[in-house]
Amino acid sequence: AGRLPNRLFYLSIPPNIFVDVVRCASLGASSKKGWTRVIVEKPFGRDSQSSRELTKCLKQYLNEDQIFRIDHYLGKELVENLSVLRFSNLVFEPLWSRNCIRNVQLIFSEDFGTEGRGGYFDNYGIIRDIMQNHLLQILALFAMETPVSLDAEDIRNEKVKVLRSMRPLELDDVVIGQYKGHSKGNKSYPAYTDDPTVPKGSLTPTFAAAALFINNARWDGVPFLMKAGKALHTRRAEIRVQFRHVPGNLYKQNFGPDLDKATNELVLRVQPDEAIYLKINNKVPGLGMRLDRSDLNLLYRARYPKEIPDAYERLLLDAIEGERRLFIRSDELEAAWSLFTPLLKELEEKKIAPELYPYGSRGPVGAYYLAAKHNVRWGDLSGEDS
Amino acid sequence: MATLSSAHCGSSIYGNDHQRARFSSIQKRFLRSGVSLLYQSNPIRNVVRMQDGLAAATVTPIESEIPLKKLKEGLLSVTSTEGKDAISVDDKGGDSTVSITVVGASGDLAKKKIFPALFALFYEDCLPEHFTVFGYARSKMTDEELRTMVSKTLTCRIDKRENCSEKMDQFLKRCFYHSGQYDSKEHFTELDKKLKEHEGGRVSNRLFYLSIPPNIFVDAVRCASSSASSTNGWTRVIVEKPFGRDSESSAALTRNLKEYLEEDQIFRIDHYLGKELVENLSVLRFSNLIFEPLWSRQYIRNVQLIFSEDFGTEGRGGYFDHYGIIRDIMQNHLLQILALFAMETPVSLDAEDIRNEKVKVLRSMKPLQLEDVVIGQYKSHARGGISYPGYTDDKTVPKDSLTPTFAAAALFIDNARWDGVPFLMKAGKALNTKRAEIRVQFRHVPGNLYNRSFGTDLDRATNELVIRVQPDEAIYLKINNKVPGLGMRLDRSNLNLHYAARYSKEIPDAYERLLLDAIEGERRLFIRSDELDAAWALFSPALKELEEKKIIPEYYPYGSRGPVGAHYLAARYNVRWGDLGLEQ
User: Fold this and answer.
1) How close does chain B come to A246, measured CA to CA in Å?
2) What residue intervals traverse the membrane (chain B) (predicted)?
3) Residue B30 and residue A120: Cα distance in Å, rounded?
4) B41: Cα separation from own chain's centroid
5) Interatomic CA distance for residues A156 and B27, integer angstroms
6) Chain A residues within 8 A of B10 when measuring between CB atoms
7) Angle (deg, nearest 10), helices B164-173 and B115-123
8) Which of A34, A159, A358, B363 is deepest in the core (most CB within 10 A)?
């Protein structure tokens, strides 16, 4: 009533009516004097082409700076903290490149399946649902160059840069899986295709592992391994950075033949139970000279007793304040799709059958072979974590 | 994660465990004669010399037999590492025995540290099968009386209570006593006879631990070496500080010792080197890639070595008054830690390689300047209803003593790695807390994106690595972290490794490790003569100046944080003491 009206529309609707709603809202309900913003949830298309289409349609009615594409992982505490860790701590600065980092792993797992709501998921699959957006966003934040400032555009510029420096994903570097039924004790878990909303012969992957590479001076040759899956044995999202071996290691004889266990590792656990820990080699107290790996550990629940806000709280607040740092820009989205689209097309055209894995297991065995191909061991499956 | 329990030394069940320290140390001993570095030692000559008790450099005809013996020992040591049940090395198993003589057995150190450490080693099966412990002191005591005295201070480790008293009895049965003067060859000859009885004809290795006042060091060494050396094994002498009062007296002491002993027979103890986290310092540096690029002037702004006790001399200041805190703590303990911190990567983990690097870094340092030192002395203080005495209130201390009980110093290493980095040391008695720690303050992030999130105090925005040596061992890395919440506020949080939480086994006392190393001939944790010379060279000029000019210490109240001058010293180099921040 006479105040400066700013309007925010949050579209929580199926993607096929995005454009209609945007058209109507922008034409019929825009703010005259203040700003009008539209928050859009994923999926943003199914591939490069459909995504471009969608963007074109949206831009018939909206400017770039009115479009707020949400990726709610960007609102998670530890994902926000990733940049703080990198850029405000001198101790990490020299380590953040191929010189010191052997590989980076981005891991996502849920411990439940589609639970009768697979119909929607079946159109997209895990790669579109988790990898191409959430995990890729985290990768971009991890690997980007230092931005000019903390401004939204400066940060997003760097993210686009790094995404565009990446090789599109190839079929050789991908493993897909789908969960099958499993009985343990007297409990029986359904398979993905047992879900009545899912077509009987669906080849849609509920698990995928992929190896990505960034072709720039900082990251040349470093495998960025992603792994995402439903109906796995645990619920977790984490970033693991495995560092290289110490050259000319004085303590070689203390490690035995498995030098893989002798490297440092930085783990950022995004969820659950937020924590950051750095695995270092330490002398076991005692009269001998035995080394083991111990954690320099920051457990959020111990350090910050206040409850951590939900990602959506932050994102909504940012949208209201016009802070775009945590929303996906159109060129960013385009770069993200161009990495995955060729692969997705090939998977679907060739009707590649996913490797079946039991509900509640660690996923398909193929994931190990993919990692091994690049001389990597999955850090979350090593059995060492607390 | 499966925690590997600390290595059981010598026990054959762990024979195939490559990670035992004994494995490497035994090998090294065999290799020693072939390895020539900055320091040469002739393993053959020492046996000859000890027998003669002469300072002569000539070698007697007996020498020809010795190489074979030494070689045999060496061969034995090599084969025993490969065969779990083979004949053990010279000081273990059927062929040999170790006799440990604690000279000054009735003293405090012996009761509080040496005997308990020997017992703990025995308890852990780290002592050879055949060993004897002899106490030697002036007071008249029987074996039984010694055992009673010793038993009062023995404890079992918390996690090993079973058959403790039985083990104690077994240990005490091996303890004997001989009374004699420290400067009497006859008495030592009697000791020798007793030792031979217990050794029963085996290859005898003898360790003498000198727990006596420094003015009788040389006499005791002379008598022990001439009258009670081992004829067919090694003889080693552990010496406790003080090693002189300055460069001249230290050099003289070394010279005197070397009339009777070889370099490799002298084991100068600095018990801080046996502390868990000080040992771990090298592990941290050299086995973790993430610390490697950070360890230089490029990333490190300053290093602080802090030691504090929360009690004064408590009526026993008489001895301390001759030395002062600089000689007591700084010139040895803190300087040793500094050397380990700052040294270049050694060629290997061999004792001589490590000690070579330590000497190198010590020799690259500038001698301490008077203007870079602040000294203090605690004065009395009344708080609540309790009154704490001042240093000079101690009856054993001269009324007008200027001896510092506190000192802070800034040292510098003139090499490419550390040029311009202040190494600040601080040591004091009667302060507000009991602590020993190493603090590494890193530089600011250049072009820091988050500048405005930190406010004006950029000092608080840097990383810090803290290694708490005691109490409550821990390592923590202070990093900047986003405070969870809707804002973008940063704070400092710790990536924390708390030993009590991570390692449930009780950490052994430093003396246990050092005694074990002395028995095994592992010299890594003992101070070499050239190392000692270099250490004294850094402090002697300043000490001399302090005493000649009769510099008055700044007085600070008992139980306080120390003299204010320490802050000004730090401020001169743009440093804030990390332990006095609010963030503990």
Assistant:
1) 5
2) none
3) 72
4) 22
5) 59
6) none
7) 120
8) A159
Q: Name the strand (E) or helix (H) holding B29.
A: helix B21-31
Going by C-alpha positions, the residue among B126, B573, B288 that lies closest to residue A266 is B288
Residue corresponding to tokens 């050397």: B339
Q: Please identify among residues 513-532 of chain B the ones whose CB lies closer than 8 Å to any CB of chain A.
A: 513, 516
pLDDT over threshold 80, residue B533: yes
Tokens 């850094």 identify what position? B538
Residue A349 has pLDDT above 90, yes or no: yes
Angle at which helix B351-363 crosses helix B529-548, to 10 degrees, equals 30
Q: What are phi and psi of A164, to 5 degrees?
A: -75, -15
Q: Which residues of A touch B516 (CB under 8 A)?
A: 287
3-class secondary structure, A316: helix
**In this predicted model, what pLDDT tens digit does every residue of B245-264 receive, in sequence order?**
999 999 999 999 999 999 99
Confirm if B549 and B372 have CB atoms less than 8 A apart. no
What is this structure's pTM? 0.83
User: Which range, of B25-34, B319-328, B554-563, averages the lowest pLDDT?
Assistant: B25-34
CA distance A43 to A40: 9
**Could you tell me if residue B132 is left (phi over 0), alpha (psi between -120 and 50 degrees) or otherwise beta?**
beta
B442-446: list long-range contacts, CB under 8 Å, 24+ apart: B442/A90, B442/A91, B442/B294, B442/B299, B442/B300, B442/B301, B443/A90, B443/B298, B443/B299, B443/B300, B443/B301, B444/A90, B445/A87, B445/A88, B445/A89, B445/A90, B445/A93
Question: What's the residue count for chain B?
Answer: 584
Search chain B and give the residue with CA nearest A94.
B293
DSSP state of B389: P
Cα–Cα distance list, A117 to A70, A121, A196, B397, B510 (Å): 22, 8, 8, 85, 63
pLDDT band for position B18 (50/70/90)?
very low
Per DSSP, what are the bridge partners of residue B99? Answer: B132, B206
CB spacing of B497 vs A280 below 8 angstroms: yes
Kindly list the distances between the CA atom of residue B151 and the CA atoms of A122, B35, B142, B413, in Å, as whole numbers in the listed order: 76, 43, 14, 47
Instruction: Please name the residue of chain B whose CA is at the shortest distance from the CA of residue A309.
Output: B485
Over residues B371-428, the pLDDT tens digits come to 999 999 999 988 888 889 999 998 899 999 999 999 999 999 999 999 999 999 999 9
